[in-house]
Amino acid sequence: PIDPELLEAMAQHRTSRRRFLGMGGLALGGLAMGPTLLAACSSDSNSSGGGSSDGITVLNWPLYIEGDEPSTSATLKGFTDSTGIKVNYQNSIDGNESFNTKYQATLEKGNGIGADLIVLTSWNAAAYIGADLVQPFDSAAFPNKKNVISRLANPSWDPGRANSIPWAVGQTGLAYWPDKVGGKITDVNAIFNPKFKGKVTILDEMRDTVGLTMLGMGANPATGTTAQMLAAVDKIEKARDAGQFKKVTGNSYTEDLAIGDTWIAVAWSGDVAQLQADNPGLEWVIPSQGGMLWVDNAMIPVGAKNPGGANKLLNYVYDPAVAGPLYESIQYIPPVTGATQYMTATAQASPFIVPPATPPLYEFDVISADVAEEVERAFVAATEQ
User: Fold this and answer.
1) Which of 30, 67, 155, 269 has the fewest CB atoms within 10 Å, measured from its CB?
2) Is the pLDDT score of 7 beyond 60?
3) Which alpha helices (H) appear in the chain, and where do they start and end?
């Protein structure tokens, strides 16, 4: 396990990428790459079979259903109307580390946490699967699992998606003001250009900032070595020491970006989609070298009381006709093949919902706990201001 002191430093060092999203209304758009993604729930019985009409409880991140309001979500209402299964939907997950602190010890004892579906980012989902803290899906109750987009259908840490399924997929790229930087930006190394000294903000999420830096150095963050990761951290540290960065922060980067005090920011697509509604001059770009992709995955935890109902909810969400309107509303890449056919023309044209095939998007490699601790520790030290 990762050193608790390091986890505490990481928790203090960052703000969840969803927190900004939770502060404002939804704008137009979403995210998507080709096919599509989705899932979430949990509670007490280790069999994934059947599907009781009893209710289910879902623990998810903010803004992963329409309007972030369960009582008015068309998806949840449609599911209950069609199955009779009520959903206790809680948008209570505000970070992977905080979720682990609250629930991991209970799950390790084989006990339920009062949830039938949970949603965690890939690196953490991989750890839960490896530790047998979740249970496999029931293929009979979840036949629509076949609709997961091909790119995300067979991760090394969960072959065939036996235990996890994408619920939300987002991008990390650059947001910038063309009038401040003197035109268009296409190179990720712009964040290190001395011409913009003191006007650049980078994220304090290691996998995002280190991943983009690796791309700028010619390394692939999906297959990178520890040495390549640490070389990227070293480059970030030297730039920090030279005063290149205005801030190294979490979602609060949006505040300075919105008023033009930050000229270039390593940014999350969901934030920029909303900022552009009030700031049409703000540009979003996936650099020519590529951008980062992150995935939050739904899983059924051990001890779930209604795994059958959880499978049924995921099956409902993975119907393209259901997924299309949902992902258009929440502005994330749909992980469900065919979902974009059920979106408006405006959504289909959005780079946040349907990013172009190039430049490519890379998901940071799921690395061992020891490597993760080494790189995280170095990154935290390199980005303290």
Assistant:
1) 67
2) no
3) 4-13, 74-83, 96-108, 122-130, 178-181, 206-216, 226-241, 253-258, 269-278, 307-317, 320-330, 345-348, 369-383
